[in-house]
Write a structure and sequence with these properties.
two-stranded parallel sheet; 15 helices; 11% strand
Length: 366
């Protein structure tokens, strides 16, 4: 089977949906029309938007099976004698390590100190949540630089005394947590792993056996991503055939300023990683009618205009931006809802469809 992985870039979500529609009908020429098309998603809203687009365009509902990438991988692979630990279980293990074996480490001791056992546990759990998140990021983005060196009892190259100290106590927590996971695996006779560790092991085990990977993932998959994919996931997608990756590039190919370049940085990072991996085709679907009054074009215009006027004191009091100080995500949502309702009351010509909300990570608000 020849690898036909393709990445589609566009500053229009409708263009990406249209391309998916074309690819979907092309697939039905060679496969069972009743078989569902697999779409991997980065958040829970992709399926609602894509279904609505297809219904409006074709007047028919599509047979699409939506999955998160992690769930898709686990369903496809034989998991005999392997158990994936949830992120919550992993956090609880780290909490236990902090309280039982690392409570005298200077930085941890200072953070969790309290006369109340309840408060001490709460602080330890909060710290464990943060540490767990950091470890997942290391697995996804810096496996060889950090995780692999810790496993080999080596230290990452930091060149910075502060980072060296941070890595040292993180390494201690990491190795003690791994020991606890190994103890559980020995007692149960089942290998316990967190998902990114499992995926690294799976890719490594099949590095020289492409046929095995192709057999496990023998169908064409489509993935819509509005956020940065980690090197781990991109490396995995690069190993299998017939992947269609649809990426929203807000700035398009008109990066004529530092601001525009930085805005588009997540997409640029993905492209750089894919270029290193090779075996991908690129197809650009950019819309050139930037004069059109879309929410994205309006936002770009407002940002650029206000950046040019930052040194003009008379124009610094513009109402183009309102900064809301909200302590929680729930309060952020409430504040935005209040603003929208107030605007609708005072502007009778506006509709709800005239508003657009841009969020870096939609999943974080569920």
């Amino acid at each position: 089977m020849t690898q036909t992985n393709t990445i589609y870039l566009s500053n229009s979500m409708d263009k990406l949906a249209h391309k998916f529609n074309e690819n979907r009908f092309e697939e039905y020429k060679t496969k069972n029309i009743f078989a569902p098309v697999t779409v991997l998603r980065s958040n829970n809203l992709i399926n609602l938007w894509l279904d609505n687009y297809i219904v409006k365009r074709n007047n028919i509902s599509a047979n699409i099976e939506y999955k998160f990438l992690e769930n898709y991988i686990l369903q496809k692979i034989n998991m005999n004698k392997i158990k994936i630990l949830s992120s919550l279980f992993y956090t609880n293990l780290i909490t236990k390590v902090i309280l039982d074996e690392c409570s005298e480490t200077a930085i941890i001791k200072e953070y969790i100190k309290s006369d109340s056992d309840k408060i001490r546990y709460k602080k330890a759990f909060q710290l464990a949540e943060k540490i767990s998140s950091i470890f997942y990021k290391y697995y996804n983005n810096r496996y060889e630089e950090i995780i692999l060196k810790w496993k080999n009892n080596e230290n990452p190259d930091s060149g910075n005394k502060l980072y060296t100290e941070i890595y040292e106590w993180q390494k201690k927590v990491f190795k003690l947590t791994q020991n606890k996971i190994n103890e559980i695996s020995i007692k149960t006779g089942i290998t316990h792993l967190i998902f990114p560790e499992f995926l690294h092991q799976y890719i490594t085990a099949n590095e020289n056996n492409k046929k095995e990977l192709v057999n496990d993932f023998d169908e064409s998959v489509h993935m819509f991503s509005t956020s940065l994919l980690s090197p781990l996931y991109l490396n995995f997608l690069n190993k299998i055939d017939s992947v269609h990756l649809y990426i929203f590039s807000p700035v398009g190919n008109q990066e004529n300023s530092d601001l525009m370049y930085n805005w588009n940085k997540p997409v640029n990072d993905i492209i750089s990683l894919i270029n290193e991996l090779g075996n991908w085709k690129f197809e650009e679907l950019f819309v050139s009618d930037t004069h059109k009054q879309t929410p994205m074009n309006y936002l770009k215009k407002v940002i650029c205009t206000n950046k040019q006027n930052l040194n003009n004191k008379e124009k610094q009091n513009t109402d183009a931006f309102t900064v809301i100080n909200a302590k929680t995500k729930k309060r952020q949502i409430q504040s935005i809802a209040d603003i929208i309702i107030d605007t609708l009351i005072n502007n009778k010509d506006l509709l709800l469809s005239d508003f657009a909300i841009f969020i870096n990570d939609v999943q974080a608000y569920y």
